[in-house]
């Protein structure tokens, strides 16, 4: 049983290795083909007059820069869309904060006991504690007594 398992693992590794080698051979063939094309283009360029060589080089550089500019424009568009989305989210959150602050200023005395209960419920649900504790000053003796016991 163990020998068969090891043989199966060895065959799997051999198959993976052969697949990787085939992929690398294909990649090598593509690179060699690309290199041959570049060498032919280079030899053709050398046969041209110096003025035509310069013009050819400039055309290649213009093409490269145009492609780079298109990529940068695409990236810029993505970033602008993301910026608009984030600005919308910020407006929504700012509105929520203003609404919350407005509701706090309307009835601060009525809400205090309710807020205290909500904080306790939230603290109990939270499982990731950072070593900080929030409490009211008047609850300090009770908190100390509970910590000691």
TrEMBL record:
Q: Which residues form a coiled coil?
A: 3-103
Keywords from the UniProt entry: Coiled coil
What is the protein name stated in its UniProt record? MYO5B protein
